[in-house]
Amino acid sequence: RSADTSKYLPKYIFYMLRRDSFFDYVMAGKKGVKMPRGNKEDIMKYKIPMPHIDEQKRIVAQIEALELEITKVRTLIENAASEKQAILDKYL
C-alpha cells in the first residue's frame, strides 16, 4: 500500500490486476454462492510483479500500442460490415 508513484505506475497496476491470473486468484478464495466476491484479506496478499519503473513504462506502452491497434481493427471491421450491408441493401 505505497503511494510512492516513483516506484510504480498506476496504469501498470491496473493492467496487472486485469490479468486472468488475478481473477483466478480472487475466485479461488471467493465467498458467497449467488453473488461471489473476493476475500479482502486474500486480495491484499496478492503479489504483483514489480519490475523497475522503466520496465513498467515499457510494458504499459506496449499494451497501449496494442490496444490502439485493436481499436483500429475493430473500426475497420465495423466499416467493412456497414459497407457490405450498404451493398446488400442497394443490389439485393
Automatic annotation (TrEMBL):
One of its GO terms (molecular function) is endonuclease activity. InterPro entries: Restrct_endonuc_typeI_TRD, Restrct_endonuc_typeI_TRD_sf, Type-I_RE_S_subunit. Transmembrane segments: none annotated. GO terms for biological process: DNA restriction-modification system. Keywords: DNA-binding, Endonuclease, Hydrolase, Nuclease, Restriction system. SUPFAM superfamilies: DNA methylase specificity domain. The keyword Disulfide bond does not apply. It comes from the Bacteria. The keyword Magnesium does not apply. It holds the Pfam family Methylase_S. Residues 8-74 form the Type I restriction modification DNA specificity domain. PANTHER family: TYPE I RESTRICTION ENZYME ECOKI SPECIFICITY SUBUNIT, TYPE-1 RESTRICTION ENZYME ECOKI SPECIFICITY PROTEIN. Belongs to the type-I restriction system S methylase family. This is Restriction endonuclease subunit S. The lineage of its organism: Bacteria, Pseudomonadati, Bacteroidota, Bacteroidia, Bacteroidales.
